[in-house]
Amino acid sequence: MPPSEYQPSSAAPAPMRQALEQARAAACAGEVPVGAVLIDPARGAVLARAHNLVEALNDPTAHAELLAIRAATAARGEKRLVGCDLYVTLEPCPMCATAIAFAQLRRVYFGAYDPKGGGVDHGPRIFTQPTCHHRPEVIGGIEESECARLLRGFFQERR
Amino acid sequence: MPPSEYQPSSAAPAPMRQALEQARAAACAGEVPVGAVLIDPARGAVLARAHNLVEALNDPTAHAELLAIRAATAARGEKRLVGCDLYVTLEPCPMCATAIAFAQLRRVYFGAYDPKGGGVDHGPRIFTQPTCHHRPEVIGGIEESECARLLRGFFQERR
User: CA triplet A84, A89, A92: central angle to 5 degrees?
Assistant: First the structure.
């Protein structure tokens, strides 16, 4: 489907639509198109929006999820984000999944599944490890087709 | 052994002695005493020294290893640290182990083993995962007793 024809489904949660906007901004900036939004549902507040900045910062850890967690904890002045939810367009990698556990997020909603690099439903399945001390609720496949389409388009253009 | 009696073994590599200094500085600052040093052996250069700053920054991702990688990649203007080695006083957690793989470090020398939170020789054993695309050489147990003693002392004081 060409980008202009995409319409988010009416059932798409607003934070995932915002995460998709972040992912599109990442693609425009030449970054792998993954976006994340952190919300505090109890206050109805968006705590952070972020997209990949690996290329811009020359930082291999500058994934959308890590940047969102760092921005939100800095803004709140707390090292944990108890009760907060993350929306991210791609299944988190093992680095980001572990950071999500450290931050004690309540829920993770993600878009596309990532068999090659994911760490939640694939690879080390971080939240199932006995040494993982906090297990968020995980809901995968939210707006999956559009999240995956953005990534496919980005990598196809670069081949 | 009381701290004053500790003498690093003459065989201790200089970067691990520096990582231990970082860990001691962390303890003095009320941070979990873990220190890290990143070196470029080809140039004989120390690229970064860091210790945990989770409490100071309210950042659950501010582990010594992640901070050292971010500092070194920023300083070099490259998102990878090919050929570089990390010395860290504690077995890296799964977050830091994944970041080490992303940065394509050559070797990881670590001090104390961490059965409860480690991600290299314990838990998800990140570098053994089929979805891990770079596997550094790993040498554990360097100055293990002093690295572990610092951590034990820190947590005993807080009980």
Answer: 70
Residues A76 and A48: their CA atoms lie apart, in Å, by 11
Helix (H, G, I), strand (E, B) or coil at A50: strand
Q: How many CB atoms lie within 10 A of CB A77?
A: 7
CA-wise closest residue to B61 among A141, A13, A92, A90: A92
Which ipTM was obtained for this model? 0.93
Closest CA of chain B from A139, distance in Å: 21
The residue length of chain B stands at 159
Nearest CA in chain A to B66: A61
Choose the closest CB to A78 out of B58, B103, B122: B58
Q: Which amino acid is at B65?
A: E
Q: CA of B10 to nearest chain A CA: how many angstroms apart?
A: 35
Condensed to tens digits (0 to 9), the pLDDT of residues A93-137 reads 999 999 999 999 999 999 999 999 999 999 999 999 999 999 999
Q: Are B81 and B104 in contact (CB under 8 A)?
A: yes
Asked if B82 and B41 count as a contact pair (C-beta separation under 8 A), the reply is no
Secondary structure of residue A19 in the 3-state scheme: helix
Q: Record the pTM.
A: 0.93
B70 in Cβ contact with B124 (< 8 Å): no
For residue A91, the 8-state DSSP code is P
Counting one residue from A and one from B, how many pairs have CB atoms under 8 Å apart?
Answer: 111
- Other Cβ atoms closer than 10 A to B8: 13
